[in-house]
Amino acid sequence: MAPSATTQEPASVTTFEAKGAVAVDKAKTTLVNTDGMKYPEYAPYNDPNDVFPEPEPFDYHDRALDADPAMPVFYNDHVKVEELTPYLGVRVTGLDLASLDKAGQDQLALLAAKKGIVFFASDDKVKQTFRDISMKKKLDMVRYYGQLHQHAVQPRPVSSTEISVVYQDNVNTVRKHWWPNRLSRAIWHIDQSQERQPPGMTFFCCMQSDAPSGGDTLVGSLVEAYERLSPAMKQFVCGLKAVHSSKVMAAKAARVGGANRRQQVESVHPVVYEQPATGYKSLYINPERITHFEGLRHEESEMLLKFLSDHITKGADFHARYKWSEGDVCVWDQRVLIHSAVLDNMEHRRHFIRITALAGVPTPAKYTPSEHEDMYAK
Ligand SMILES: O=C(O)CCC(=O)C(=O)O
Ligand SMILES: [Fe+2]
C-alpha cells in the first residue's frame, strides 16, 4: 500500500553529535504516517539538542512496603483478577488504573512485585482511562513510585522527556531493523538495567493498535527462573555480580538513526536481586546488557551468560504472552520480570507509550536453602 504519508518533521536527514554520543540521523525513527493517528501528541519525536544528565542518586522507598497485604482494592466483589499463568501475570478488569488513590497505588506495587506484571483491561462497565488522562497526570502517577527515567535513545513525545514512544506504522518500520541478521526478532530484556538505580515500576500503555493480529508482548518470571536452578547453581550465582552496559543500546540507536542523549553507562549489579518488599529472589540477567560477570575468566563468563540467558528465554513454562486491546495498560516490576516485543506484524500502526520509575540500588540476595528447593530434580 502506498502510504499517503505526511511526516511530522522535515524529511531532510539531519545529524548531530551529543556530548560523548555517536552521530545520528534523527529523521528515521521519527518518520510517521499521520493519517488515522489517534494520539498525535504522543507521536515519536527526537530533539537533536537533547542531552540528558546522569540520573541523580535518590532515596528509594518501595511503595509495596506500605500496602495492605490483603490488597482489598484488587481482591473484592467488583474487581476481577485473573491469572495469566500459574507463575506470573494477572489481568485486572472492573477497576480503572487511572482511578487508583494512594492506597490503591501501594497495593499495585505489591501486586506487581508478587505477580511480576499486572494488565489492566476495559470491560462493559469499567473502561481504562489512562491513555486519555493528561500527560501530567500520567507522569505524576508513575513518579509516585520513584524518579522518572529519561531514555537515552528511544523517541519521546514533543512535550515530555520522561515518556518513551514505542511506535511503528507502514512508513516507520525502524523496529524491524534494530537487530539485523538474527533468526528471531524476539529480544528478551530488562529495561535499562545499566543504570546505577535501575527501573522498578513501569507503565506501558496501548494508545493505538491497528493490526488484526500480532504485536503481542512476551513476559517471563525471573523469580521462577531462579527457583528452577539447582541448589549448587543457586549458591554459585548468589555470590556473583554482573556488569551491565549501555554499549549495545547505543550501537543499536546509531544503526537505525536514533538519538543518543547520554554518555555510555555501566553498573555492576548482583546476579540474584532481592525484591525489597517481597524478599523474592530474582535471577537478574539481562541478555541485552550484561557484558560479563565479575571475577570469571572470559570463557567462563561467556558460557555462563549463554546458559543463564538460554534458561530464562527458553522457559516457556514460566512465560506468558499478552494480546493487546487499545487502552489496555500494564504495570510491571522490572526487578522480577523479563520481557520482549513480538515484531511479527510490521505493516500496521502500533503505538504505545512507556513511563518508567527508577528503583533502588539492587540488593544482593543471600542463598538460603529451602525445603522444596530441589523440587524440580524429581
Ligand atoms: O513493544 C513491546 O511489546 C515491548 C516494548 C518494550 O520492550 C518496552 O517498551 O520496554
Ligand atoms: Fe523493554
UniProtKB/TrEMBL annotation:
Ranges where the TauD/TfdA-like domain occurs: 81-356
Coiled-coil residue spans: none
GO molecular function, one term: metal ion binding
Cofactor(s) needed by this chain: Fe(2+)
InterPro entries on file: AtsK-like, TauD-like_sf, TauD/TfdA-like
Signal peptide segment: none
GO cellular component terms, semicolon-separated: cytoplasm
Family indicated by similarity: Belongs to the TfdA dioxygenase family.
PANTHER family for this protein: ALPHA-KETOGLUTARATE-DEPENDENT SULFONATE DIOXYGENASE (PTHR30468)
Record's keyword terms, sorted: Dioxygenase, Iron, Metal-binding, Oxidoreductase
Protein known as: TauD/TfdA-like domain-containing protein
